[in-house]
Amino acid sequence: MCHLLTLRRSRFTVQLRDGCGSDHCSTPTCFTCRKRIAGKAPLRRFNTTSARSMATYLASLDNAENNICPGLRSPKAPPAALNSLAFVPNRKDPLREREERAAPTSPARLQSGPPHGASPKKCGGETPPRPPRSRNGSVNGSPAPKEQLPSTTSDFQDQASARGPGFRVIEEPTSKDYRSFTANVFSTVAFKMLEWLTPASIEEMSRRADRFQTSRDRSRTGATKDTDGDSSRSGSPQSGFLQQSPIKSAETKGDGTKPRGSRLRPDATPEREKLLKDEKAVKEDHNSSSASPISRPATQRRNSNAKLRTAPGPKPKRQLSIDPFASDSLVDEAFPAILKSPRPNGSATDRTPKGPKTANPVLTRPISQLSSAGFFDDVSLEKMPPPRTVEFKPKLGRSQVDGAKSSDAGSPDELTVPSQVSSSRSCSNHSVDAGEDSEGEDVRMLPQALSKLSADVVDFICDVVQEDGTAENHMLEPPSVARFHNKSLRQGKPLKRRSRPGPRRTPNLRLEWKIFVEQTLFYVLSDPQLAILSFTERGQLYDSQTLWYCMLRMTRIAPKLVFHSLWMASASLFPPPQTLQALRSPTAKVFPNKEKSLSNLQAGRLISICLHTLIAAAPLVGTDRELYDMSRIRAHGLSLSGSGSVADQPVSLCLQYEDCFTDELAVRLAKRVFSAIITRCYYDEINELNLNNEEKAPDVLTPLFSQLDFLNMDSVYILNFSFPDRALHETRVPILLLDWARTVMLNEWTGSPEIPGAGAFGGALALIDAMYKKRHELLLGDAQFRAEYFAERLDTVQMPVHWLSHSPTRKKMHLLDFPYLFNSSMLVSYFRAINFSRMNRAYEEATSLQEKIEVITHRLELDQHHRSVLSDRLKTPSSKYLSLDIGRESVIQDAFNQLWRREERELLRPLKVHLGATTGEEGFDSGGVQQEFFRMAIAEALNPDYGAFSVDERTRMTWFVPGSMEPEWKFELVGLLVSLAVYNGLTLPVTFPKALYRKLLGEPVTELHHIADGWPDLASGLTTLLEWDEKDGLVEDVFARTYEFSVEVFGQVVTREMKPPPSPSAQTSSPTISPRTFKKALNRTKDEQTKWPQFQPTAWQAACHPSPQENNPDEDTAELVTNANRNAYVSDYIRYLTDVSIRPQYEAFARGFRACLHPKSLRLLNSSILQSIVEGVQEIDISELKRYTRYVGWDSNHRTVRDFWSIVKRYDNDMKRKLLEFVTASDRVPVGGIKNMMFILQRNGSEEEPGGRLPSSYTCYGTLLLPEYRDREMLAERLGMALENARGFGFA
Where is the composition biased (Polar residues) (predicted)? Predict the structure, then answer.
């Protein structure tokens, strides 16, 4: 956290003082935005102290990253606090100085390790603390070993480098106002450390330290060539240069006098004064040769007088960026293999004499990015400069060090590396000096890291770490994972460490193995190219389970390192592709900095690796049920299952899931990956607009879905798993992907239904949307995509109404644009809330108009005649209800007459029906009469005797009659009846196939399962045709089908040869045709080719037009269905059945259906939900009905109530529907189940006589009035009589 605070503070400081330089910046705290808003008005820039104060405050706020300017680049220049640091040599003790002066000047001999008695040097130049030495030279009270004095100046240098860096960092005194509280606070070391420890500062200090060390080495080398006396003077430690410091300290002027106000420090000596002069010379030389790394953006120079201004300086180049993330200096670093080679302790070395220096190969030993710093104790640095090169001269006859041999068993170089895995820093081409006979040291440079991983290598390194017990402490479950695959499909020998007789591995060797493994993981996983290469074989990614297994094992030994490394590698997903970086605008580049980018294929593979890592972080479960239950719990935003209403899972498993999905590094990786997904999608959209780009790049999620296609036989299977493991993995991967996407969405959600289209939230939603479109291939149901957390916290009434006026953009979208996130009951509630809102608005408009009419007529003092005339003229706009007067003998005729040519505003008003008023019925509509009217009207309209609809005898499905003689306006009115029922929240006693509802919602009907419910026999026959194996006979011989569509209408068979639909690709041949003109031409061509013949309604019209059956093609010329065209035959047959043959009738029905419903509200529904809204639920569960029944006048333990339920439970389905219709006026259960229906059992007196009252009901209120009968037999008799003769209304 401290490191993140430091980075944010440095970015805010640059943002406040310098700005981003973008011409369209809108961040209030950015200097560029302030300058643009101020215009020509004077603008005061924050000084260093005020910028530090403001940056510290902004960095400490919650969600501080949201306040950082998107166009801000990471600061490359060191902060101002670094200017006060200076490098000075260490002071030597007199004993070591005398030893150096007494040393002979023989040729330099390089030693490969520290001399005997010297403490080993840590990586990065850091020297471990030396043991306390007593007065007599003993260490920790024991006699000190006699040290071998080095014989050359080079040996002195090696010993000095082994003891420490040879210099120290001091802070130059600066002038400040001691009366200022802010200046004193920010001058403390604690606040300065916030700027000293930034990546830019550490990198700058590393460069200064390297230059300072190089200058000292050069001075020492020159000193050895002089006389001893000159060497003692010029080679002293004080003769090195001070590191340059941009802020000058108290120095002498050119004339030898000190500047005014300067003071001599207490430690000032003649040597110190000389060092200051050398430092000044170095700074002057550096300033004259090179400019500052980063210059402040050019601004107008102003005089002291605000009205007089000097000419503006050169304007900076325009900077544009579409990268949603500011560049991070940690991400832009290279990933070298930079751990020191693990060396066994106490290994013997051979000594060889050294000859004069020649041009020998050198081996650079980089310093680990994971090691400690050499400048400040216990400070973790991300990058340090490489040390000086080491001359490497192995002994004659020794083989090259390649990681295959070692002098000690169990060292990291004793692993048998497969041919495809190489060490990252191989040691080869070593020169050997001839003519040397004396013994030398055997320098063994062991491999620092592996440059590639594989399934075998992952198993090996994980086994090593788990065997040594050096795995990272973490909260993931299980803590460790052993091998559970059967074997590798490549039949290779497993890797293992060589064992030799002797003592067991020491703690230092275990630590070296741990460092080697960590360096390997960091080096490979932080480099996107190496990460992709490691898990790719034969040009494809590993299969999903092998990749998941590798990540599972690595996340159980070093999860933080794995998550952080992949987080760094995923930064390469954001630079735009090369095709976009090549774009140019007339005035500036679209992308100012060309960064190394990945193609969509490479980006997709890296995304798949990262997502499998997140999946591997989840706890291991043994059954599909646990996966589904935990997904439901997480979808509700819960950590525990609670009372078990959502799912019943143990607390321990819930807590393990919570530990995984709240891990900071894992969540950070998930956010970056999801942000990259939506960013790459935007790049694809921009790329499609580029006219020069003719080839469309593959989608970035294609590699992931290719892995998740478990039926893909081309997948590269590496490891062999058992069948139960693979079956469980097929369920695990898509479920956990949805869980991670929901986790990021819940973390990023602000509580508003309007959601961001970009960023982590937009990327997670894009992944869920892509998975929903492929849910059938992924074996996912609609329930797995729900996020109940959102529905529980949104307004059920106002939110869907506001959604109607919302226009989605890339920046802002709405949750209801993705209805699969909500369950069916909530979607129905939103749908009905929209209808109720429109109905209420129409009612209020009519009421307001009626009140205005009354006021006007009262003021004008009109007589009764004129008032009635005015009321008749304004009856249509001022009526509060849509009133229908229907007679029982002519229901459909009265309905058609009164609904014909109604305005939309009339149809949107509340419905009132007067049924049977002409025959003396007292029924007045309070809800039940409406239900009775629609039941009678739909039953008469869909009667097959009229020739408009047909009913299947087996399935009772209703469908249009192809070429019906009924006019289209009747189909439109039937659709209007259905629309009115849905608009008023009523169900209808109809059964349409699901294909109709798919067509009404604009969904295609192309698959066999789309027609299976309406035409089961046909679907079964076509399935047999598709699955037929020609080994048992040719398709044309066995099935003998022609490529035609036939239907029997009015006793006549109409047959037409099926033609394929016109291809839209014809538009590409005529680029001058507009899309709208081409669409009209395409529809006209489509109608001409596939128009179905219609029967004429009258004899005169039939005489003028040929009969439809007259144009039937000849059977001899018809094309047969063969193995080559059977797939096309099935597709065309479905198209002719559900579209071509009934197109005029369906289009008229659809126009009426959409008359009362808002087009956008239908987007909330799918075909199943729309079918349940129209038809209700036909299955009636008496046990559930009993559970939700309310009682008035008695309770459930009363004898009559118990007898009632015992009688009803024995009813068949027909009697159950009659009971439900008798009480609620509908024989269907509404959508959402019986719990959404009102069913009241009320006591209505007592009856002892056999000829007493029958049961009655209030259908408007769902109330059954049941008298208390004498016995059970009488109750059964009277109830059955009432249900069989239920027709008409009393007061309903």
Answer: 149-160, 232-247, 288-307
Residue 1269 has pLDDT above 60, yes or no: yes
Give me the pLDDT at residue 208, please: 82
Task: Name the one residue in this structure whose structure tokens are 């036989």.
Answer: 713
Cβ-contact 1007, 1167 below 8 angstroms:
no
Q: Provide mean pLDDT across the span 683-706.
A: 79
DSSP annotation of 1137 = I
Catalytic residue among 550, 610, 660, 1260: 1260
Burial of 907 (0-12, 13-18, 19+ CB in 10 A): middle
Q: How far apart are the first and last CA of the chain?
A: 70
pLDDT of amino acid 14: 86
pLDDT in tens, 789-803: 999 999 999 999 999
User: Is residue 919 very low, low, confident or very high in pLDDT (cuts 50, 70, 90)?
Assistant: low
Q: Which residue has the tokens 């302790």?
A: 345
Burial of 901 (0-12, 13-18, 19+ CB in 10 A): exposed
| pLDDT exceeds cutoff 50 at 113 | no
How far apart CA 196 and CA 540 sit, in angstroms, is: 45
What would the mean pLDDT of 644-652 be, rounded to a whole number? 79
Can you read off the two tokens belonging to residue 950?
């047909």
Q: Computed from CA positions of residues 1262, 1265, 1271, 1275, in that sequence, does the dihedral angle turn out positive or negative?
A: negative
Q: What single letter denotes the amino acid at residue 650?
A: P
Which pLDDT belongs to residue 765? 95
Q: Number of helices and strands (H, E) in the chain?
A: 44, 20
CA distance linking residue 539 with residue 551, whole number of Å? 20
* Residue predicted with more confidence, 916 or 913: 913
681 belongs to the catalytic site? no
* SS3 of residue 188 by DSSP: coil
Q: What is the DSSP letter of 143?
A: P
Q: Which two tokens stand for residue 638?
A: 């819960």
Predicted confidence (pLDDT) at residue 1164 exceeds the cutoff of 90? yes
Q: How many CB atoms lie within 10 A of CB 745?
A: 23
Tokens 């509200």 map to which residue? 1161
Concatenated DSSP letters of 828-869: HHHHHHHHHHHHHHHHHHHHHHHHHHHHHHHHHT--HHHHHH
CA 639 and chain centroid, separation: 21
Contacts 24+ apart (CB under 8 A), 939-948: 939/989, 940/891, 940/892, 941/892, 941/974, 941/977, 942/974, 942/990, 947/1050, 948/974, 948/1145
Q: What is the mean pLDDT of the chain?
A: 74
How far is the C-alpha of 941 from the C-alpha of 559, rounded, in Å? 67
Pairing of strands 911-915, 882-886: parallel
**pLDDT (average), residues 832-841:** 94
Nearest CA to 743 out of 844, 630, 830, 606 is that of: 630
